[in-house]
Amino acid sequence: METEEKKKHGGVRGQFWRWLISGTVLRLILIYCLPQNLHFSSHPEVSTPLTSLRRLAEGYWLKQSSMSPYSGSMYHGSPLLLSLLGPLTVKRIEGQPSHLLCSLLFVVADIISALLIRSMGQYLQLAYKQQLELLHLADKSKLSDTFPSGDIAALVYLWNPFTLAASVGLSTSPIENLVIILSLYGACKRIIPIAAFGWVLATHLSLYPAILIIPIMLLLGYGPDAPPRKLLLQKGRGESRDTRFSGVCCHKPEFVFSWGPVIHFLFWASLLSVYVFVLCAISVKQYGSLWEMLQSTYGFILTVEDLSPNIGVLWYFFAEVFDFFRDFFLIVFHMNIMFMILPLAIRLNHRPCFLAFIYITITSMLKSYPSVGDSALYLGLLGLFLDELADMQFSFFLFCGYVGVSLLSPVMHNLWIWRGTGNANFYYATAMAYACLQIILVIESVSAMLNHDRKLRSLSLKKRLEKTS
Amino acid sequence: MAATLSRRWVLSLFLVLSTEIVFRSKAVVEEQRREEEFYEELLLRPLPDRKVLAHFHFESRAPPSASNGRHHHLFPKAISQLVQKFHVKEMELSFTQGRWNYERWGGFDPVSSRNAKPPGIELWAVFDAPQGEIDACWKNLTHALSGIFCASINFLESSTMYSAPEWSFRPASGNLRHGFLPREAVCTENLTPWLKLLPCRDKAGLSVLLDRPSIYRGFYHSQRLHLTSNGHAEGGMYSGIFLEQTLTIALQPSSRGTSLSYSSERNLQPSWSLSSIFGRKVTGRCVVAKSSNVYLQFERDLVAQLKNLENHGMNNKSFGNYLSKTDYELSINPDVVYQEEAKGQGKSPSVLYEFSIEKYSDSQPFDLGLKWKIPVIWSCQQAPLHGSRFLMGSGNERGAIAILLRSTASNEDLGTNGGDECKLQVDIFQVVPWYIKVYYHTLQLFVDEKPKATGDFMEKIHIVPSKDKISPGVMEMVLKFPCSIKSAAIKLEFDKGFLHIDEYPPDANQGFDIPSAVISFPDFQTSIPFPNHDNKNSSNLLSIFQERSPVLSYTEVLLVPLTTPDFSMPYNVITITCTVFALYFGSLLNVLRRRVGEEERFLKSKAISESGQLHMLLSKLSAKLRGKAWEPSQPSCSSTSSMISSKLVMKVILVAAFAVAWKYYLD
């Protein structure tokens, strides 16, 4: 991904809008010109049982014929999304491709996401630069404004083939991505109602973003990503010692966790979640209970009922595992996500945005029905940490791996499902390779970030030594 | 005085006696009506494609009775127990091998619409039980039936296998359960228990003809059991049960015996006799049977063709003379000849010959034969629309089911009769197993090969979408087409599901069956009214012929190949996946807790400073306690070492506490 970005970075700043517009035009061209017999929307990489628009249309049809949309096991999404997108799936414009309105909505969602990522990136970079200047490290470190990471991240998100596939392939993941980005944006810019709104909706739509509450609270409590707090403290202490102040921590208020916005956020989040629940209850009241809805949305996500192939690893595992171990492994696999929350939060609490990125990557790797839309989100967010992750290892290998897997996976699927010459193991192997790539990405990016902190620490140490000498 | 007294006494005695006699005779009549009855009948019918249809019809009746309800003379006890225990109001079970050829064997007569069944097992039952208990009754019933008939009917117990059609199959307000087992193989082990229900088994009567090799050589073979009970048993009264057992076979008579030249033999219908098609003769009736008759039916079109031929041959004999004709020859004189009551003008009636076998015995067995003399070609009467069903698409990801209705000749007549206002109602009932995930919003309707809006023709639709591993999808539809319709097609898209390896049958690559759809035409009633010559009891088959029942046909069973996982890999998959998870977990944790040399030094100094801080706090506290001003003291080596040792002690205590708690909890 790094290489991709590096190719683009020259002169990107001025050309951002041009690229944005051309990205939009490309999407529109794809919507119109993509041959219908490609059946892009039924590829398992693009649409999962949760995000497939076809299933949403089925749910809407059931609802229109006064049945519960959850009465079959077709639709597993939110009732709110159903009432938002449902009418668009039915409406046809003469002479236009079917589902045109939905596709346009997804294009708009993509563009808004890209713009939000851009402004988030700009804000993060500005804040980070200020912090470094505070440490007097801005000149020493190689960071400069040649990398407008916000622009790059936005363009990476917009031009990523995965994002293109997700938005053209009629899956609802552009909307899920939009609300996740919205919550992070709100938290960065400290617009608390927006952060709460995004978080509640993201959790409502796909459950896994619930764990983003930790980075959001850290963002609100500590402010955006900064060098390790200890450095600033030491710095403050050193300065105070220099100026011979009697107090030990005069700069303390800057680094203390501020509970005000967090409580504010929690208040908004609980208010909005009650609101969302009430809306859901109203929309499913005619046909069934709220419990039925929860069972067929969150229950479906957590119990991995659908064993149709996708790019994750769980489907084949649960298709093959012995039935009496099923519950055990369900717990183990979901615990794998939960277990890593705390260690990561402790180690990366000074970089909440990066923490959010890591959480999103982990969930999109271990979630029960992953799709390329999830990958598109974390690859876009990766661009935000361009400066910090400049020394990341294996980036070229990862890039090649992503390209290879995304080419091989449809081929293997075709061999297995359509031609019958392949085997389930072939497709599963690509899913495994993809999981390994994501694991390497997570581990390398975390270690690169920690190394970056180490470098900053040694730089500031050197600086202090220089000063004292 | 005495004389008058005596006369009075005699009179009163006479009165008493006479009333007693009257009562007794009444009781005798009632008892007779309440007796259990058994009838056996066989219908033979030549089919246009050189085959013969043999339709055995056995009927047992158990009247409602108060006292001896648990004991039966003729009626099978297993069935009556079934009815009483599971509150069965009506039930039908059919075992079928082969497919009824609607185009050649007809689909518009009582025999085909009642006895043409889908391949495998079909079971439906209407229960006379409260809504909550019906499913339990059904499950127990399937188990009992699978025990009685040596078949895996108990597979219908699982909720994924049965459905509860609301109105398209037959009107029953929620008390109906219906299940298909398309893959069940039917053979003699199912026939033997079926024959055991007959009072004479296959030892006497018409059932002697059921020679296993010859009946299983047939093209179509369907054994059916239909029972009706007269409602709920109340106050010790056991309900009356009406059991109908039929066996329908389409057989190919061997035409070796004919001595005609080859060219004419090709066109000539094969001649046959009971002994040539079954290899046996009827040696007498089942003595407990109230009536045992054999019928030979010539269909309307056949009769019409024969009439035509006669007219051409200038044969001016009236049709009343049925034997030794120029066209065909019967080896035995019929006892009664029935002619259908003509309802339409210009339509020729169908003809039924009745043979009573009461007068035949071992020495003089009954062997009916039909010998054709001239070639005749005719066709059977068909349902207004011929329904067929097929799969569309390739690959193992998705596909589409299409139901195609094509108009038949009989519909054309109807169209000319009815005019513009004429509407043709078609009910469709289709069950789809859950692993065929049907998108009902993709329902498309093509009328005369043009796509049409479904709302224009759909009168009513009821859909129960399938739930994964819980219930099948049920689609019930009422369509109304104009009578001039040529063809109509319904298309539904589906995705193929993926199963757990345990859910695949042993031969997973063979594919999975979608059971037949039921297409019925409620506006069309099949009935062949024959004028009743005898009293009602002697002709049960005729009364069934007269009953008006809707035309019903079943479509083909579809075979859907599903993708299979690798069945030999569970251990590999589990180990490899868990390895990847371990890789993720371990290396991420490693990255998070890894320290570089510089950091370690920093940590050491931090530990020292921290312990120093603790020490500092302690000394602060002690200073405060002592009331002295606190003086910061340099942390010394000895103090840190003592702190470390105290830490160690703390750790040891903690571990010991853990151990104690563990022990305590385990005990």
UniProtKB/TrEMBL annotation, chain A:
The keyword Transmembrane helix applies. GO terms for cellular component: GPI-anchor transamidase complex. Signal peptide: none annotated. Keywords: Endoplasmic reticulum, GPI-anchor biosynthesis, Membrane, Transmembrane, Transmembrane helix. Its main location: endoplasmic reticulum. It is found in: Endoplasmic reticulum membrane. The keyword Transmembrane applies. The chain crosses the membrane at residues 100-117, 164-185, 197-222, 262-284, 296-318, 324-346, 353-372, 392-412, 424-443. It is a multi-pass membrane protein. One of its GO terms (biological process) is GPI anchor biosynthetic process. Pathway: Glycolipid biosynthesis; glycosylphosphatidylinositol-anchor biosynthesis. PANTHER family: GPI TRANSAMIDASE COMPONENT PIG-U, PHOSPHATIDYLINOSITOL GLYCAN ANCHOR BIOSYNTHESIS CLASS U PROTEIN. Belongs to the PIGU family. This is Phosphatidylinositol glycan anchor biosynthesis class U protein. It comes from Erythroxylum novogranatense.
TrEMBL record, chain B:
One of its GO terms (cellular component) is GPI-anchor transamidase complex. The keyword Transmembrane helix applies. InterPro entries: PIG-T. It holds the Pfam family Gpi16. One of its GO terms (biological process) is attachment of GPI anchor to protein. The chain crosses the membrane at residues 571-592, 648-665. The keyword Magnesium does not apply. Keywords: Membrane, Signal, Transmembrane, Transmembrane helix. It comes from the Eukaryota. Residues 1-27 form the signal peptide. This is GPI transamidase component PIG-T. It comes from Erythroxylum novogranatense.
